[in-house]
Amino acid sequence: MIGRVVEIASEGQHLSRHRGFLSVRKDSEELARIPLDDIAVLLCNTEAHGLTYTNDLLVDMANRGIPAVLCGANYLPVAWLWPVEGHHVQSLRMRSQLEASLPLRKRLWQALVKAKIAQQQNVLDVLGVPGGGLLALAQRVRSGDPDNVEAQAARRYWPLVFGSNFRRDRSAGGANAFLNYGYTVLRAAVARSVAAAGLHPSIGIHHHNRANPFCLVDDLMEPFRPLVDYAVVRLAKAGHREMTSETKRALAGVLVMDLRTERGTTPLQTCIERAAQSAAQSYESCKPIFTFPGPPLVDSSGDTE
């Protein structure tokens, strides 16, 4: 399902459910009314001082699988509302996930890393950036990536896509803040798809930080991260330096970015759903059968279609 990213970023607002809609009010005035079935993610930012919710709204969102993400400083998520039930064979799939052998998990991580590196090269190609040689690196990824080819690719990729002076710093502004926001949107979309596929978000393939409740989400979002990078580069080239409503719309729009796939042109959000479902099938079949998209489509002017 292609849904909308709804962000609440103004103070004094009240969110409630009204006949299948999300109603946004301030004082006695209704500011917006959005069909709940149209919402993919609800983002509540730190600027939304005094924000309140009704329990009916949160229950209805959970029943529909809509994650509510509470963001702290610099648009980083600090809390999530997560539905308890996401799929009719959820228990079976979670058992398969929990019992996955180490060799299977290593092969799954190999597939994820290869897909990520390939998408990094796709982004460089679409941006017209020469060099990289990342596809050759992708072919060197072994089961479990014991040689850490992912990091080798990153050392080549980041200077090429953002410039030699760029440093990834989650606490910085500018392009770093854009990346934070875009990754938060992406992470929420992957989290929703993981729940819909009947998988447990904290049982990871490679990520295993005991304090991270979304290890699997962070694993599955890796091949899609370069698409956020692509959107951030385009914002920078258009002269955007600060977070605004316009840049937020552009970053949320990553989820409807058209990509090349074996089934034809497909929006990113659908590709994420297919990846989560293929992960569940991989656990059940005990072999990697991931499905990942190709590069973004661009028109003759260089804009994403």
Key traits:
305 residues; alpha/beta; 4-stranded mixed β-sheet; 10 helices; globular
Shape: globular
Tally the helices: what do you get? Answer: 10
Q: Report, as a whole number of angstroms, the end-to-end distance.
A: 19 Å
Write down how many β-strands occur, each being a DSSP E stretch of 2 or more residues.
10
For the biggest sheet, the summary is: 4 strands, mixed
- Judged by helices, strands and strand pairing, the structural class is alpha/beta
Q: Could you give the order of strands across the largest sheet?
A: 1-5-7-8
The parts where pLDDT drops under 50 for at least 5 residues are none
Rounded to an integer, what's the Rg over CA atoms?
19 Å
Mean pLDDT: 90
Helix content: 40-55%
Sketch the topology as an H/E string, one letter per element.
EEEEEEHEEHHHHHHHHEEH
Beta-strand content bin: 5-15%
List the helices and strands and how they pair.
Blueprint: E1 4-8, E2 13-18, E3 21-26, E4 29-35, E5 39-44, E6 52-53, H1 55-63, E7 68-71, E8 77-81, H2 90-98, H3 102-127, H4 134-138, H5 149-162, H6 175-196, H7 215-220, H8 225-237, H9 245-252, E9 258-259, E10 266-267, H10 268-285
Helix pairs in contact: 3-5, 3-8, 6-8, 6-9, 6-10
What can you see in these coordinates?
- The chain is 43% helix and 15% strand.
- The chain has 305 residues and is α/β, with parallel strands linked by helices.
- The strands form three sheets. It has a four-stranded mixed beta sheet with strand order 1-5-7-8.
- Helix 3 (102-127) packs parallel to helix 5 (149-162), helix 3 (102-127) runs parallel beside helix 8 (225-237) and helix 6 (175-196) runs antiparallel to helix 8.
- It is globular, with a radius of gyration of 19 Å.
